[in-house]
Amino acid sequence: MVTSCAERCGIAAYSTALLAALAGRVEAGGPLTVARLPVPGDETREEALAALAERANEADVIHIQHEFTFFHGYLPNQTTLFRFARRLRRPVVLTAHSVLPLESLMHVAEETRPVRRLVKRVLTYHAGLRRAVERAPYALADALIVHTDACAARLAAAGLPKSRIHRIPAGVPPLAESAPLPPDLATFLRRPTVAIPGFVTPNKGYETALEALTLLPEDVGLVIAGGARVDSEAPYLAALAAEIERRSLAGRVRITGFLAEGQLAAVLRQSTVAALPHREATGSYSVTLPLSAGRAIVASDLACFREIARESEAVTLVPPGDPGALARALAGLLVEEERRKRAEAAARAFAGSHSWEQVAERTAAIYEGVALGDRP
Predict the structure, then answer these.
(1) pTM to 2 decimals?
(2) Residues 6 or more apart in contact with residue 170 via CB below 8 angstroms
(3) b/e map 19-30, b = 16+ CB within 10 Å
(4) What is the CATH number of domain 2-171+356-371?
(5) Of 51, 185, 191, 359, most Cβ neighbours within 10 A?
(6) Do 2-171+356-371 and 183-353 agree at the fold level?
(7) What architecture is the 183-353 domain classified under in CATH?
(8) For residue range 314-339, what is the model confidence (pLDDT) as tens digits?
(9) Domain map of the chain by residue range?
(10) Angstrom distances, CA of residue 124 to CA of 153, 317, 341
């Protein structure tokens, strides 16, 4: 399994949970063993990519956990994915964690510089570039794993055979034991609190949450439970902190920075509700954390959250980018204790019925299929 090994990475946590569930399984072909290899990241040297590929080729199946930043970016003249993949001699399974259109990867909507925005917009009309980003990375795989129906539909629309695409939602991990929090954060959490867990990235709708907070009673606080995932996202985190100051919300908002698993567990357990006000998402490992913590969740009405909401009363959906709707949904859960308790029970039930053992069973079946040459 070629995956992130970083401590501060949701996909690394996903892979760790999957590897633990796969360990020791016995399939039709015998015991299943999986070795973990680090993704190349910013490594671009041919000899390093060749060495990693040779290690991967020792296996019967190579499983790539794919996110565009794992292979030095998404642009054809930058990414190392294809240089790595052409050296592979074994069947490839690829889990697509981010199935996004080119304009989302280029952050066209967030670009504030007019000329740069125009250039990016023009590039999105380049058919060859769009194919190289939206189709080619997935075409190299013998089998594709996605987490939602929406991602499966996007890949099928890009021309990938439907028979090669497998929807396996992420398992819901058991939450770690709570660890002590810094005194100021522990004190802050004694008030009614909304928590937004996960790495701080521009697509997660923090600005919508800040506006919604101004519409809620002044005793309600907001905890942004995470920090920048990579150095390149640190400027956005700084801009968000400046926006909090500009809105005079410093007394009602805490940005925790990176939290160890036990501390994040404590924040989620001590918060009143969780919010996922994303502007866009094709899947979010962070949604599994409040589910595991048994929190009521208000999330944007995006396909990945909609699929969970269809199964569970734990999730209340609101239109993306609508602070009024977000505020009303949060206010309802904060005030109506009985409703909140039902949502919390539903979250715990959902977590219990979506185990990593089930994910491992279905993933192992895909391994066996491609190992036997079952590529449509």
Answers:
(1) 0.72
(2) 14, 147, 283, 285, 288, 359
(3) bebbeebeeeee
(4) 3.40.50
(5) 359
(6) yes
(7) 3-Layer(aba) Sandwich (3.40)
(8) 999 999 999 999 999 999 999 999 99
(9) 2-171+356-371, 183-353
(10) 20, 30, 46
